[in-house]
Amino acid sequence: MCAPLTPNHLEALVRHWNTLSEAGNPESFHSRSHLTRITALVCLACGTKVKEKKTSTPVRLITEEELEMYDGSRDGQPIYMAVKGVVFDVTTGKEFYGKGAPYNALVGKDSTRAVAKMSLDPADLTHDTTGLTEEQLQSLDRIFTGTYKAKYPIVGYTARHVLNEDGSPNKNFKPEDQPHFTMKEEL
Question: Are 129 and 113 in contact (CB under 8 A)?
Fold first, then answer.
């Protein structure tokens, strides 16, 4: 059981609450972050040490122009590539995708066709899968799941994946069906 709160506890509690509130949404009373705050405050008041859990970066919509900025050419900046409209942070594979690396041509864009064909031909560095054989499409699915989803964090989706050519919402895109997406935390 907790000891009674002293003025020092209350001051610490208020300081901690203010720190947490600055980053959160005060209107989201029943959110997970609110429960985390309450837990932290109760533990702080009781003198219990709490391990802070790092949260992942929210998944977001990434434009083609933005994706181009993460092509491995700038030191210290993440390296992104998209496959099937899903944007992966491939920075941990810098020896494969970084500047001057063998697969650098694939980064900073949606390289779905190139991954399906196992090609580095500039004509294949596109999202377009038109004309791919059944074998290439199956290879794409295996590599997408076995390599990219298994090894690299998802940081977003390309606009083309979420929106149609005319800018209208893609009705086939269901965020809740996407990997690493939870409706409660991401929207």
Answer: yes
Q: Write 182-187 long-range contacts (CB < 8 A, 24+).
A: 184/31, 184/32, 185/32, 185/55, 185/58, 186/58, 186/59
Q: Which of 169, 177, 181, 183 is nearest to 59 (CA)?
A: 181
User: Do 61 and 41 form a contact (C-beta atoms < 8 A)?
Assistant: no
Rounded Cα–Cα distance for residues 84 and 140 (Å): 9
Query: What mean pLDDT is reported for the chain?
Result: 74
pLDDT in the model for residue 119? 96
Burial of residue 29, with CB atoms counted within 10 A of its CB: 0-12 exposed, 13-18 middle, 19 or more buried: exposed
Beta bridge partners of 163: 169
d(CA 143, CA 43): 45
In the predicted model, what is the mean pLDDT of residues 132-158? 94
First vs last Cα of the chain: how many Å apart? 37
Sequence-separated (6 or more) residues with CB below 8 Å from residue 152 = 88, 89, 90, 92, 93
- Indicate the SS3 state at residue 157: strand
pTM score over 0.85: no
